[in-house]
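Anyone able to model this chain together with magnesium ion?
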Amino acid sequence: MKVTAILLAAGKGRRMGGDVPKQYMDLCGRPLLSYALETLERSEVISDIVAVVPAGDEAYVQEKIAAPLRASKVRCYAAGGAERCESVGNGLEAVTWPCDYVFIHDGARPFVSVEILQRLYAAVRETGAAVAAVKSKDTVKLADAHGFVAATPDRENVWIVQTPQCFDFRLAAGAYAAARGKEPVPTDDAMVVETYTHHAVKLVEGSYSNIKITSPDDIAVAEAILQRNRK
Ligand code: CTP
Ligand code: MG
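re: yes, here you go
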């Protein structure tokens, strides 16, 4: 079985701010993006990688991030789009080699582990669509248009989704082709499959450490996770 990972690193990092784009920002001596790339390289599950980066950054990422890791699975770079879903679409269209399953991962989640990749692989082979997620530790409220509570879903059924989000390649490619340019703009990959196919999506245990580095507050948490992982 051939698995391609689409590693997303073409965002603007607006909520992070700062002068270095978020994906290249230093985290304990290494660029943020290098952590997820290293884990994808190390995982036996992943055969090939498409790195989606801002147009014009390909050589920079190759030289500063992929080459120092001796990353041998990066088959090509694709240029990002204005929205995350466009970046994913471009990544999927760049896959011109044999591919049974695709693992779509945010470069801004440095703490994906080989164990999570393994669990997802087992699940996606069985179901065709599997996404990393954790049960919500907090009670979640659905609001009405005026900011009043409309409903309280049973916390047992509330999951916070993460990436990797993993699909049968043809299922994802078809769903993304159908979604191009349509509203609403999907906020994750499962939503594209939910909206444009009838395929059920399985929630698979991710990890509470598999955080997305989004705003400056997340950096201290990320540093603490790294320190703990190094012990
Ligand atoms: N991403 C992408 N292309 C986009 C938007 C996002 O490849 N047009 C990627 C980001 O690089 C990141 C992941 O999708 O790895 C999750 O996005 P997010 O955390 O929102 O990052 P940014 O979009 O860069 O940040 P912000 O929304 O604060 O601008
Ligand atoms: Mg964003």
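The pocket of magnesium ion (ligand 2) is lined by residues 11, 84 (CB under 6 Å).
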